[in-house]
Write a structure and sequence with these properties.
The chain has about 140 residues and is α+β, with helices and mostly antiparallel strands. About 25% of the residues lie in helices and about 45% in strands. The protein is built from four helices and six strands, in the order H-H-E-E-H-E-E-E-E-H. It has helices at about 10-25, 30-35, 55-65, 130-135; strands at about 35-45, 50, 70-80, 85-95, 100-115, 120-130. Strands 2-1-6-5-4-3 form a six-stranded mixed β-sheet. A hairpin with a 5-residue loop joins strand 1 (about 35-45) and strand 2 (about 50). The model has no long low-confidence stretch (mean pLDDT about 95).
């Protein structure tokens, strides 16, 4: 996905984030999530090693999505400083035993520009969340 040097508007970045979570993440669509990155983008999820490249992001997130029945992000804040987008949320997971677990999370994206269709794309992402309650017995 080629990118441009032009930084999208604040409104476009916030809409991109809403769409990303509504249409990909909270639907467990790993390919849709990975498509929000440049081809050489990277992701660091919690304390896991950094994932390099869109294909690695998609594969790891697809595997992660198998660990729960569903998930839902409830936005608590969105902050933009230049090319940096910080999202605060509460994430509710439904485990395979049907128990619901809600944890706080913060995700930081670096917006690299836009793709060929004018949508923002990220080249860096850091997700800070404690997933211990999701995997607790």
């Amino acid at each position: 996905m080629p990118k441009t040097a032009a930084l999208p508007s604040r409104a476009a970045i916030l809409q991109w984030a809403r769409d990303l979570y509504d249409s990909a993440v909270d639907r467990k669509d790993a390919r849709g999530f990975a498509a929000a990155f440049t081809e050489d983008g990277w992701l660091r999820f919690a304390n896991n090693p950094r994932l390099e490249g869109r294909a690695a992001i998609e594969a790891a997130i697809a595997q992660f999505f198998t660990a729960m029945v569903s998930l839902k992000h409830t936005p608590k804040g969105a902050f933009i400083d230049g090319e940096t987008l910080i999202l605060e949320a509460e994430v509710t997971y439904v485990r395979h035993d049907q128990q619901k677990v809600t944890v706080p999370a913060v995700t930081i994206y670096h917006i690299a520009g836009t793709d060929g269709a004018g949508k923002p794309v990220a080249d860096e992402c850091r997700i800070y969340v404690d997933l211990a309650p999701l995997f607790a017995p």
